Amino acid sequence: MRNKKWTILFLTMCLVLVTAGCGQKDNNAGESKGSANGGSDKVTVNFMHLWPEGVSAGQNKIVNQIIKEYQTEHPNVVIKQEVLDNEQYKNKLKVLSASNELPDVGVTWAAGFLQPYVEGNLFAPVDDLLNGELKDKFVAGTTEAYAINDKTYALPLEFNIAPIYYNKAIFEKYNLEVPQTYDQFKQVVKTLSDGGIAPIALGNKDRWTGSLWYMYLADRIAGQQALAGAISGSGSFMDEGLVKAASEVQSLVDSNAFVKGFNGLSNEEAKSEFVNGKAAMYMMGSWDLPNFTTNEEIPLEFRNSVGFFKFPTVEGGKGDINSWVGGPGVGLFVAENSEVKEEAKLFVEYFVSKWGEQSVTGAGVIPATKVDTTTLDLPQLYIDLFNEMNKASSITLFADVQMRANAAETHLNMIQALFGKAVTPEKYSEEHDAAISKGN
Hints:
The protein is an alpha/beta fold. 45% of the residues lie in helices and 13% in strands. The strands form four sheets. The protein has a five-stranded mixed sheet, covered by helices on one side. A four-stranded mixed sheet has the order 9-10-8-11.
């Protein structure tokens, strides 16, 4: 499996800035499907996504605005939404794919996540859209993550990196400074834990959340190349630095770094601990920026208190503090067997073109399409994180996204077992190598 460095991506982002100066409901009742050229006949395009109003207020508002505009401009089209949260969405996508009953348009992730759907002939190629109105509209390096065998099977909407968000008010209360080294970070954890407050909000019931912590430790200790090689199968998770990273995860657990019951909490439950001031830090992708900048349902006092920092360097480690875990975020696919495939593609083309600037100004999302951010009035947290992304030395794509389906499932199960101390670091590493060697 490929592992990409997204250097070109960031150079392009920089050039853009310089030359200009990342529950469920039905919102629209639909009619029966029909031809897009059917005159008065209504065409229904089923659109399944993962931006519920309560969890992703900014994105949800933008989605509904784009759909409203599209239906106004295309009066014979009805966009019928099905909205689920992240984990519900992934599970339903698997169920629908088994019976080849995917929505006409849906959300997917890149690389290894995408692969089985492409191999099952479930997603339609969308290269025609890249060569049409959207030609040259994407930041370099984003669409490539959705390409398999020289065909592109989804169009990315976001680009993400995963910082450690922190509550500045809590840090001030305990006279803490942003840590630059991992030893300093562990001292921050100890001070907070001794003071009776949870250092880190983590909802590891969802498993990929814990993977972020392991990946950063692996990157900082063993280095980006060792981690990339282990994931691709050209190296091994038994690499001394990677085993040490797994061991360090359990050291954090032993030091009470994470909120109580973290292995049984969902990500949303853990996030609420951070938002409610019960935990001082929270690692998450930049897709959560809206909750800390523009989401008015979250108290302004809290939003004004959120900062972020890069995962610290480890003494003697091979990693670079400007190396990030992240990559292209979610993208839109069109189902291969859609009865209204051409209309679905037209909607995707429209959606992507409208999403760019609206997602920046309306939600604080870092988009995969080129946007002149110098002309926009943006929150400082967004600007600071965007600038850090432009300084990135490398980006390692989320492990479970890189891996093929079965290996990714092993990785996620082992992450939860590692955090729960149900396996040793050595067993954790052995299981990864065994799963990746199977090649599925």
